[in-house]
Amino acid sequence: MKRLNRSLNTRRSFVGVLSSLALVVSCGLTAGAAWAATESPDVFIKRLTTELLETVKADKTNLTGDVTKIGLLVDQRIMPHVNFQRMTSSAVGPGWRQATPEQQKRLQDEFKTLLVRTYAGAVSQINDQTIAVKPLRAAPDDKEVIVRTEVRGKGEPIQLDYRVEKSADAPSGWRIYNLNVMGVWLVENYRSQFAQEINAKGVDGLITSLAERNKSNARVVSK
After folding, report:
1. Cα(84)–Cα(112) distance, rounded to whole angstroms?
2. Interval 183-200: pLDDT, tens
3. Could you give the number of structural domains in the chain?
4. For the chain, does the N or the C end have fewer beta carbons within 10 angstroms?
5. Radius of gyration of the chain from its Cα atoms, rounded to whole angstroms
6. Which CATH number is 47's domain given?
7. Are 170 and 163 contacting, i.e. CB atoms less than 8 angstroms apart?
C-alpha cells in the first residue's frame, strides 16, 4: 500500500495527471479526408474531453467537490472510451497470465475504480487550465497513435500524451489505452509497483491492496 501511495504522489499526483485529461478546450482541428471512416484521433481526444468539461461546467453543483456525483459522470462519459482490459493487463504485466479469469476480472474492476475515483477528484478541481493539441504525427492507416497535448495555465506547461488504438466496436473508432504526463507513462509506472506487490503477496495480494485503497478513497470522500 505504501508503494502504491508513493507512486500516486510521484511527479504530481495522478489527480493532477487526470485532471489535465478533462481540460481539452483549445485548438481548432480538422479531420482530413484520409480519416473519413472515423474521427481522427486528435479530434476524438478533443471532443471527448471537451464534452465532459462542458457538462461539468453546465451543472454548478459538480464544481462543489461532489466526487461521487462526478465519478458517475466520468464513468458514463469517459470510461467507455478506455480499453480497460488492455490497460489492466499491461499494468499487471506477467502476473496477468498467472491470474485466473476471476482474478483478472477483480483486477480490472479494482483498477477501474481506482482510476475513476482519481479522475473524478481531478474533475472536481477544474480551473482555467487549457490544453493545446499538437499536430498529429501519424499515417492514416496507423492502428496505434500518440496524441500529444500540452496543459497550459499557471506555471510551466505540462506534457500530457495519449496512446490510442483503432477499435472497430468504438463509436469514434478509437480507444485510449495509456497516458503520459511529464514523461511518465501511467501503465508503465503502475507496472513496476504492481510487480512488487505480486512478487511479495501474489495476485490476490495485489487485488487486496487495490481494494483497500479504493475503500480508503471512498471513506475520505464520504467525510
Report:
1. 7
2. 888 899 889 899 999 999
3. 1
4. C
5. 17
6. 3.10.450.710
7. no
